[in-house]
Amino acid sequence: MKKIKPIQWIAGLLLAAGLAYGGWYALRYYIAPSLALTEIQPETLAQQPVDMRQWKGKRIFVNYFATWCRPCVREMPMMAEVMQSMDTSKYVFVCISQEPIEKIAAFQERMQLPFRFVHSRIPFKENGVYSFPQSFIFDENGTLLSSKVGSWKSEEELRNALTEN
User: Fold this and answer.
1) How much is the pTM?
2) 147-154 long-range contacts, Cβ below 8 Å, gap at least 24?
């Protein structure tokens, strides 16, 4: 039997540690968590709690964003186009940020987008959201249908995700 040298042990340990870290990093930043609608705890910009179950019977699109996030800001006009082409009696679009309420309100005023902008009462990381933008689509019963980490590439991609199932 061939004897393993200490340098080979060290190299093996470093490789294993690198693979473990890479897997952890991918899970944390590139794979959306399995989020329940009731785990989302937003409040209005007037600091009133929002019960996400109030929209039962509608398909709910939730977009986690930050006002400083370029991909987030870049995709929002396209999301607005999709929203305005959908039947608003069947769909709700909610954009949620954990930034200070004043900052979200100023962003909403500046961008003039038709979404419901809300503030997260809990840090995003408590819901497993570590990167932006990140979107979740819930069905009419509040069950998670799909999720996406990163920007929507086109109106067609988003519209298809909203109307599938």
Assistant:
1) 0.81
2) 147/32, 147/33, 147/34, 147/35, 148/32, 149/29, 149/30, 149/31, 149/32, 150/71, 151/71, 151/72, 151/74, 151/75, 152/75, 152/78, 152/79, 154/78
